[in-house]
Amino acid sequence: MMMSAMIWKTQMPRTVSLGSVVRCAPCLRLGRALGSLRLFSKMVDVGSRNEINTDRNFANTRFAISQLLNNIHTKTEIDQYLTYFTSVARQQFAIIKIESELFDNKLDQIISCLAMLYHVGLFPIVVHGTSYQVDRELHFLNKNPNYIDGIRVTDEETLQIVKDCFLEQNRKLVDGLKEFGVNAVPMTSGIFDSDFLNKSKFQMVGQITNIKKNIIEDCLNSNSMPILTSLGTGPLGQLLNINSDHAVAELTKVFQPLKVLCLNETGGFYDGETGKRVSMINLEKDFDRLINGDSLHYSTKLKLKEIKELLDYLPKSSSVTIVRIDDFANGLFTGSGVGTTIKKGYQLKKKYTVSEFSDLKKLRHILIKDPKIRCGKENVSCYLRELENTDFTAYYDDPHDVFAVVRNEPNSIPKIDKLLCTRSGWFNNIPEHVFQAILDDYPKVQWIASDKDENIHWHFEKSEGSYAKDGQVLFWRGISDLPDISKLIESFHQQNL
After folding, report:
1. How far apart are CA 36 and CA 141, in angstroms?
2. Membrane-spanning residues where (predicted)?
């Protein structure tokens, strides 16, 4: 009975057992409160300086903060993401596309979320559409919207409506952001040089030939947030209607952002057969199957092809996430558990012997990053000699953002002996896929992590049980028999003697 009291299970999330000491799970998330105070004080200070409506600002600010903090586990994790995003030039942070249907009933949430980013020093390039409002105006005028191949046919009358709707939505967003102390800059035209897409077919519809990058860069470098429409300037200076997806794609090619976030009402792609949301698409291994299969609707396949073409211009670390505004923070920062995240992906590779590694120098360089080796408790050469006489499986991706070793010793439950991951790897959720590959090969597995590991929450989430002592935490998955668990803990104690 004493032993079972020391076991933490995911079915009992309110407590975490640390040896003989039981602590409340919220203690693991103490950083949330600290981060919340920091963000909240900044935004409220901004609000008081600008003498805005206190009640409205407080409610929306609290919503924005809770979106960030409720979806990210610790202050350390928040700092990780902020550091990662601010490690690149400002224009490479993110491009955020806002679908037009959100302006009617989600505008306050959009404003508060964008303001949150601004006040933690993150400056996205924001692009919004206005198709929903244009269709509504056309219906009011008893004029049916005309689309060919998903592109709005835009005559002179329709173009004026498009312009008016763009200006109105842009003004609402910019004015709202300024109330939150955000230096938002409206960019309603003059950014996209364009030519006619097909004048005889689509009339006043343009395709982008050049982006005036310097205007956006100057805006970002002056601590401002650019708010763009997708109106273009034609060869004779006339306005042209540009599809907002096309505008985002061209901006992405020019600015190479870490993240492209698309906000809409559906919140992702859905399987047409099961009705379930598709949470992650790894283009490297999923694209052909999804395009040639029947699980996605035709329109979704077209969108997936567009996203693939967009990602072809970006580094592997970039991704596109389609998400609802309610899941803004999680979609932007973690990209897990909400919406649909599409990545270029990678091929996960496996090795079963040391001799299979063609570049031992690179392998040594990877292993040097292991905490035990880095602090001198283990030696790389000795560890590799051990592996030569051990049944093991090594898992890694092409750029070596993640490297894991599972040792399968006789009369023992397989053990994840190494799990090394770069910051980019954590950001792109690669350990999730590696862990699933490990479970496919080893349904029962154990591993040990330091309780000071900055990603300790991830280990708790992936385990079905844990036991901690002297700064080390033993985790296990797929093991339910108490005798097996007792042996694990006994062995764990012996290792720590």
Report:
1. 48
2. none
